[in-house]
Amino acid sequence: MKETKQEDPSPPVTTVKKENSEDNGVFSKAVLPKMKKYDYEEATQLSVNEKFLKRWLIDGLIGKGGYGEIYLGMDIIRNEEVAIKVEPKKRRGKLAKRMILEQLVLLKMQGKTHVPTIYGSGYTEKINFIVMQILSVNIGDIKKKCNHKRLSATSVGRIVHQLISALRDLHDFGYVHRDVKPANMCFGISSNAREDNRHTVYLLDFGLVRRFKLPNGERRPPRYRAGFRGTTRYVSLRVHRRIEQSPYDDIVSAMYTAYELLCSELPWKRLERAEEVLQLKQSMTEFQGADSKPGLNLEMFQGASSVLVDFFNTVIGMDPEKDPCYDKLIECMKILYAPKTMEDPYDWEDQQKTLEECSEENLT
Ligand SMILES: Nc1ncnc2c1ncn2[C@@H]1O[C@H](COP(=O)(O)OP(=O)(O)OP(=O)(O)O)[C@@H](O)[C@H]1O
After folding, report:
1. Ligand 1 nearest-atom number relative to CA 141
2. pTM, to two decimals
3. Which partner for 139 in 64, 115, 126, 182 could form a disulfide, CB atoms 3.0-4.6 Å apart?
4. Which family does it belong to (predicted)?
5. How many Cβ atoms sit within 10 Å of the Cβ of residue 120?
6. pLDDT tens digits for 156-171?
7. CB within 6 Å of ligand 1 — which residues?
8. Which residues lie closer than 8 Å to 156 by C-beta, 6 or more apart?
9. Exactly one of 179, 205, 249, 347 is catalytic; which is it?
10. How far apart are the C-alpha atoms of 244 and 58, rounded to whole Å?
11. pLDDT for the residue numbered 8
């Protein structure tokens, strides 16, 4: 489908059994070389062992999206690993603007907890690039690696709590993300005494952002018909209907993300046509019950946590033209992960468990 962003066809990451609390956990630096998921030949913009701009030694390709390639590099001045996101300057003969926008938003957001630190950005003759903090595996890949292809309630609650905080920060700056999904979230990696961000979720891929606020803080007037932006599986019904996106639509994508992480897949996962996806989404949240008021179709939540149902009801009850009730949504997630706290180990860090083992337990 032309307008639909392609899903990242990444193979699963390799799980490493934890051997000690400092170094060999799923999110440790030791795992990183195994995250080079692609053959070197697939790298089209930079080459392995190249010294990019005389400062970053390219070590391999760790991610590949629809538009960019993400390389693992070594900053030879600071002796520190970095991620370098690169996109060709020209795409189909036109100047690519995605990464320029992404740079701008990332720079504005520096210092915010859920945004990677930027060490450099710019362009060369052929490419636009961003050098940033290296992160761990993305949450879509973590989920794929789990036995039942789902995460425990305490993991999902903490991930989605952080996602909502990340979105609140972005919305406060006046932007909507428009591509919220598990593959656009990564855990941090550092476990040294100076900073421990292994439990911090980072939001990625700001290439589809759009300003929804005017400089005076008011909302921009919506276009009569907006183009499709996002990934079909996760976009709100309003996006299917080509309505201008607002913070509400990012929250709806966070809601579908929560469902997918908890229940292993969204009901429309195998549907190809956007029209069919739209219909199934409608039957999930615009279901005509006995009282003929549209609401949630509880049959699609069988076996799911009642907290997920509450979360959905809170989201679909929101007014898209108003600011989302972030605190209420976070409170919902806190119930999902209680009694754990953000500092507690995630399931896969507990007692030397692999991702496969930990997904067997603590299900919703
Ligand atoms: N700083 C980072 N550290 C480690 N891995 C990263 C980093 N940034 C991105 N990645 C990996 O690369 C993947 C693709 O990144 P990103 O979504 O930014 O690229 P993209 O080309 O914009 O992708 P898309 O197809 O969604 O447009 C992510 O899912 C993640 O696994």
Report:
1. 31
2. 0.87
3. 182
4. Belongs to the protein kinase superfamily.
5. 15
6. 999 999 999 999 999 9
7. 5, 8, 62-63, 65-68, 70, 83, 85, 116, 132-135, 138, 183-184, 186, 204-205, 207
8. 258, 261, 262, 336, 337
9. 179
10. 40
11. 32
